[in-house]
Amino acid sequence: MPPVYGLIHIYGFSVRTTFISLTFKCLDFPLRHILRVLMSVPPPHLPGTLAGVIDLAVDWMTDLKEGVCLSAFWYSHEQCCWTFNETSFEDRDKCPQWQKWSELLVNQSEGASAYILNYFLYILWALLFAFLAVSLVRVFAPYACGSGIPEIKTILSGFIIRGYLGKWTLLIKTVTLVLVVSSGLSLGKEGPLVHVACCCGNFFSSLFSKYSKNEGKRREVLSAAAAAGVSVAFGAPIGGVLFSLEEVSYYFPLKTLWRSFFAALVAAFTLRSINPFGNSRLVLFYVEYHTPWYMAELFPFILLGVFGGLWGTLFIRCNIAWCRRRKTTKLGKYPVLEVIVVTAITAIIAFPNPYTRRSTSELISELFNDCGALESSQLCDYINDPNMTRPVDDIPDRPAGIGVYMAMWQLALALVFKIIITIFTFGMKIPSGLFIPSMAVGAIAGRIVGIGVEQLAYHHHDWIIFRNWCRPGADCVTPGLYAMVGAAACLGGVTRMTVSLVVIMFELTGGLEYIVPLMAAAVTSKWVADAFGKEGIYEAHIHLNGYPFLDVKDEFTHRTLATDVMRPRRGEPPLSVLTQDSMTVEDVETLIKETDYNGFPVVVSKDSERLIGFAQRRELILAIKNARQRQDGVVSNSIIYFTEEPPEVPANSPHPLKLRRILNLSPFTVTDHTPMETVVDIFRKLGLRQCLVTRSGRLLGIITKKDVLRHMAQMANQDPESIMFN
């Protein structure tokens, strides 16, 4: 059985088996054949298909660092042991087919030499994966680095980053995302999956002129794609739609809501059909709890919210300071070396601790899980009553055993390690998501708090705070619930998400009963974090990178007018404009060469300054270049006409160039007495890059998004010239 068909047989693919087979068969063909197969999938299906392939590859490559399956090397550890019929439930992670590298190379499974060899190969595999990832990003697709969400937010606000959503970015980000997650670095794939989904949406938009020639409609497709990305990242279609509405999209009309919902639904269905985790769930850490929460537990839940807010503030400030240092010092000139060093440090420290050695998703899954009768984790090493005859799902609180206390120490060390290493990992020149590392920090803290509350309730059930709801022999406290609440609190503290975060978390658990604890933790973490600064991590990186982004959450209440902001101002050179029938090709080319503006207003004449329309710089350059190549008689002295019917020219005159087709005849305009509060609102809701200022049809000036941002900074008593744009 070939490798891909083995995977299909193991996971029981019921949908799109043909596509998966074709995709893997094409691995022996050139790049264009791979792209052709990938792009043949209908738009909403592609993010789900890519997410499933990424999950399968990450599962295998993560286990490859520790060993290999002898019967089929493409099987992960779990898949390998599934196929062995003689494996018992107690030893389900041990089977003859799966061998660690020490067993395979030196025929030893225990002892110092085996440990050192496994340790060395773990580090070697991690370095290899990280080196391949950063090299591919640097050589083929520099835009494939980072999480992508700050740039997606900026693009949806109306700013164009050419090539950021291209095919090469899609391919390289998909491949390198597998590599970096498998390397064991403290990052996740959820944020980059939003970027991958938007690349898919952008590609399919380019196939239809209705979307490729209309930036507004293209941005609606990208909003729906972002919802599909979160849907497959967390297995939360509704949460994905709300994430796009709350966190990413600039303008979200009702029709976009419906399209986003449909895209998220189809993407989640595709991922469910692939079934990458083999458990009929969309995520690895799906959990179900059987014990309700009690009102007295709100206090520790709120404390976890405070911790999440403090962690978010600490992370944002430290990470932005480190990223700024990377941009302003020689450190930024050596991205490969930085990735290698951070990977080496991560692997060296992570291997000795079982909670940092495993993948972060598996760690979160174990922390979320409730301790049942069949659990073999150290976290479930409680002292059992031999006379207990309770059902499996109703195990009472028990005193902690030595394994639980050992796990608490290991988790405390893992918490410190995750907090520190994530600060230096996020922002490197590799795909890096922040959702999973933030959730891991919160889940570790929450599980420690949950075990503490559980043991306190067990040993002191006669205290007044436990007396009314926690009787001896009852299952009172669920430590896994505390881990889930802590994960939500830390993720909310970093991103400032609220509504979409709560919905995503409750979709993970499959129950509505725990919405109140999640809401309390999410709101508390946002309040605490906002007390130290209003910016989330994505807004902070937008400002660090110098993107012209108008945050819809900021209010502008100053009573200034458009004439106070527009350019040119007094003492500045006049506005660069084009006339409708008096400029030659050479004049326009000289104007383009001497300026770096994105476009030029077109007026009747420089004397009247009556506005006709607006011509984009890029379209002007392409139109003149094509005319010189394809039209006979177009020379430097040819007159450019933006009029509907150009006049007759003498026979010995150069052939005129008609460019009315590239002219925007209805550019957005405001009068010079329009309040800036209205102008700012227009820029936000329409995603404008510039608007023209007129009086009775006569052009007075122009306002760009950068002018608006500088004016808002000035009104906030900041130096407007200190705002740098890339």
From TrEMBL:
Transmembrane annotation, as ranges: 119-141, 161-181, 193-209, 221-245, 298-322, 334-351, 407-427, 434-453, 481-506
GO MF annotation, one: voltage-gated chloride channel activity
GO cellular component terms given for this protein: early endosome; endosome membrane; Golgi apparatus; plasma membrane; synaptic vesicle
Keyword Transport set for record: yes
Domain CBS: from-to ranges: 566-630, 663-721
Membrane topology: Multi-pass membrane protein
Pfam families in the record: CBS, Voltage_CLC
Predominant localisation class: membrane
Compartments reported by the entry: Endosome membrane; Membrane
PROSITE patterns the UniProt entry points to: CBS
Alphabetic keyword roster: Antiport, ATP-binding, CBS domain, Chloride, Endosome, Ion transport, Membrane, Nucleotide-binding, Repeat, Transmembrane, Transmembrane helix, Transport
Superkingdom of origin organism: Eukaryota
Family: Belongs to the chloride channel (TC 2.A.49) family.
PANTHER family: CHLORIDE CHANNEL PROTEIN, H(+)_CL(-) EXCHANGE TRANSPORTER 4
Protein name: Chloride channel protein
Organism, scientific name: Podarcis muralis (Wall lizard)
